[in-house]
Amino acid sequence: EYMGTHIEHSNRESEQLLSMVRTSWTRPGVSVPPVHPRQQHSLSFMHMNWMLWIALLIVLIALFLLPQTTTTAYATDPSLTLAFDNEYSTVPISTAFTSFITTVSIRAPKFSPTSHTRAGIDLVAVLDRSGSMQGDKMKMLHKTVSRIIEQLNPNDRLALVAYDSVDEVVLPLTQMSAQGKESARHALQNIRDGGPTNLSGGLWRGLHVLKNREGEMNDVTSVLLLTDGLANAGVVDAEKLVEGTKNLLREMKTTSIYSFGIGHDHDSNLLSSIAQSAHGAYYFIKSSSQIPIAFGDCLGGLMSVLAQNIVLTVTVPEGVTINSISTAFQTTEVVPNKKYIINIGDMFSEEKRDILVDVTLPVAELETSEQPLLLSNIEYTNIIERRLANANLVTVINRTGPNSVLGSKSLNVDAQRQRIRIATAISNAQKLADTGQLKQAAEVIEDARKVIAQSDFVRSNAPGSDSLLRDLDSLTPMMASADTYRSEGTHQFRNKANQHNTQRASGSYSGYSSMYDTSSKSSFRMDFEDAEMDDLLVLVLLILFLMSPLLICVSLCLCVCLWWSRKK
After folding, report:
1. pLDDT tens digits for 72-93?
2. Cα separation of 537 and 558, whole Å?
3. Per the confidence metrics, is the pTM higher than 0.85?
């Protein structure tokens, strides 16, 4: 009965096989019942249907997982450009403003360098191996760093620093050739969880690796600092740790630091301060499963760096004064109300930096379409072409007749106002929540939401406008209780504020501020996340391959497609 029901052959083959079994079956008292041809056909058809359904399911899964290719236009020139937007497009010559807002925008093109033209990276991964990293965290960390090793090319160099109560360089700065990658994998396998968390020792050892590097130095240098706990060995005072880091960075102006805090027990204020001191970003990783997404996002940014050491200088002509400059970047006053220097740091492909400048606007004597309002200049290092570069911009305002009206409002200026408003509201709410005033913190967020929801930018449904409200809405549940805020809210608040202040996405969870995302970062996030799903899919295909010859062709085709997508 068992064989008559399950043998998957054609009717003729099944009958022959059963006939052979009947003639050879010598066990007394046992007879094999005949199988009706119609029953055989029905069973065989049902079995075939089942296998076809599985094949169809695998095809659908593969189509969902494999990256979607789209046609996109890339710039051929990696140079930065300057642009401006005024609060009003036109202003009557008889109208004066004591406060008039204009923006200076620095824009990086959507540039896709090849592996040969991309700037090389000197990367140091500083990895927490304290006892709390045991289990899934350490396993996921190993998988993620292995993925980073795969993505680096021979122009890049990688070093691994591990720390618990002590710190050590388990892999010196090594060229990522085939042999170098093998050395890196071997060194990674030797990183195992141990004792307390000497974060200062690990970070400073990593910075010294870059400071003392030899050979041909790459243009992009960065430290990836990961921890899941508090600094409880070495320098544990946050202010001293940040100050010591700044002292080392004074001689390493192009080095960035990206900090990754896993779980609920790390000091997000410390990690954020460290990252900000080196023009980096802080990533909040809610669970170990998000480690690949965060590292993929970060690596996607580093592999698309177009410019470094960006310095913006703004001055005003006679008759105009600067009231204030709204930016989170370091700003130096050279001549009060007249000249300021802003240190931007670096920029990735597709990124923008918008600086709000509040100036006075006097009356004009004559109608003109080009009354000078602001003079801007940027100097930077173009690392794709490996040269110093600069750009200039004159912000002008169109002055119309005395009886005319104000021109149209700029949505971009309003967008930057709301961006600064949300960043300020989050920071203010966090200060209140940190002292236990959760109700007052929630009111600050709600008040900001009401104002932003009524802004011209949001009401116009312009691209990115919905992201502002989503970010605020995602923070409200974080203030439901003191425990919720302490375990997750404080980290998300700080991460959100940093993203809006710097206009740089740095997320690994559902609260990701997508309005600052770039193609490179998105691609690497998906690649690192899909690597886990690829392993599962290959396993399923292997099982199905062994189960039935009917799926051999489907399995092989999908495996080839999967391999090709990973290769690309």
Report:
1. 566 677 899 999 999 999 999 9
2. 9
3. no
